[in-house]
Amino acid sequence: LEFFKYFNSRESHQLGFGAYLIGDFKLDNARGADILSIWWYNRNLRIFRKLQQMTESSKDRILVIFGNGHVSILRQLLESSPEYEFVEFDSLK
Questions:
Q1: How many Å apart are CA 48 and CA 21, to the nearest integer?
Q2: Residue 41 CA: distances (Å) to CA of 17, 24, 60, 63
Q3: Against a cut of 0.90, is the pTM above it?
């Protein structure tokens, strides 16, 4: 349980997203940034759009289980959207 709490925490999500900002991200002048924005961010926007399509009511409760590489961006999208309330994993009982 402690493992899942940590890997679903804000801190872990920020570190996970930060991992995309080093390594290949620094390729050439902008090639790494282009790869991240064109392919990876687009993929996560499409996942978020699927969540919107499956939501029927503002009273729906949705459990999203995705790989940790996606979660930092999905978290940002969910927290930014006026349609959703992001609930921290460790607050669930």
A1: 21
A2: 11, 15, 25, 21
A3: no
CB 13 within 8 A of CB 75: yes
Report pLDDT for 53. Answer: 96
Residue 41: CA count within 13 A, CB half-sphere = 13
Distance CA 76, CA 74 (A): 5
User: What tokens were used for 63?
Assistant: 């459990």
Characterise 41 by phi-psi region: left (phi > 0), alpha (psi -120 to 50), beta (else). Answer: alpha
pLDDT digits (tens, 9 = 90+) for 6-28: 988 989 988 888 888 888 888 88
**pLDDT tens readout for residues 45-57:** 999 999 999 999 9
Dihedral (Cα; 16, 19, 24, 28), 10-degree rounding = 120
